[in-house]
Amino acid sequence: MESKFYQADEHRAEKVHLLFATIARRYDLLNDIMSAGLHRRWKQRLVELASAGRVLSHGAASGGAAYNRRVLDLCCGTGDIALRFARAGADVTGADFTEEMLQVAEARKQHDSAGPAFAQAAAGKASPSHGDVNWVRADALRLPFLDNSFDVVSVGYGLRNLADIERGLGEILRVLKPGGKFLSLDFGKPEAKAFRELYFGYLRMVLPILGRIFCGDPDTHGYILASLQDYPAQRGIKELMESIGYRQCGFEEFCVGSMAINYGVKPK
């Protein structure tokens, strides 16, 4: 499967930037359509895995401890995962190199801040623990943060898009605090051959149609299969993380391995 937005060479970052600038306004809608809304559960599961037993979204309302870690949501896109961490009480930095995505993320933040929980707090009826989110335009391969800055680094559907995944993982390891966690949600590769062929067939046949309907260009979503073919997926990412120096590496799979969350810890 080819896509004009995918090039496995020195122009890859440029092409990826163009892709996400093109689809920014339709990104969330298409995620809902492609996954039948399941991406929301997977993203919430990522936040739960990052919590290390801390109370998350309902902690403040139920009298539990606040989730007060410092989080970097890398390749944050429209801010879905970053805002989930903020709702759980984290201090979040959302970083992406596409300005159009960050504009959508800021609009979502403003809408989130005007939601029912904040209205109740203003009226003195509730005291929700809600962290803040700041957006930063940044390249994942050259992060503008000091060493040992974050308790958690998350990536949602972004690791696969890096021009140099090993270098990106190294940068993430650098900015994590000792004992900090890295988690990445992305497309996976099912081990079962029959399901893998069915899954790749769906990506090949259906997603370009969605790209044409909603973005005016089938290549915007034909890109997914093109990028996945060279991506090492959950097992390869686990091995790569271990070779770089992450510890306690593993992954959790969904939909027979078609989606997965990889995770690992920076040694203390």
Task: Please provide the ordered H/E string of secondary-structure elements.
Answer: HHHEHEHHEEHEHHHHEE
CATH architecture: 3-Layer(aba) Sandwich
Span from first to last CA?
Answer: 43 Å
Helical content stands at: 40-55%
Strand tally is 7
Walkthrough of the structure:
The protein is of the alpha/beta class. The chain has one domain: Rossmann fold (3-Layer(aba) Sandwich). 45% of the residues lie in helices and 19% in strands. The chain has a 7-stranded mixed beta sheet with strand order 3-2-1-4-5-7-6, with helices on both faces. A hairpin with a 4-residue loop joins strand 6 and strand 7. The N and C termini lie far apart (43 Å).
In summary, what is this structure?
The protein is of the alpha/beta class and 268 residues long.
List the helices and strands and how they pair.
Layout: H1 12-23, H2 27-35, H3 38-50, E1 70-74, H4 80-87, E2 91-96, H5 99-113, H6 116-122, E3 133-137, E4 150-156, H7 165-175, E5 176-187, H8 193-205, H9 207-215, H10 219-230, H11 233-244, E6 247-254, E7 259-265
Parallel strand pairs: 1-2, 1-4, 2-3, 4-5
Antiparallel strand pairs: 5-7, 6-7
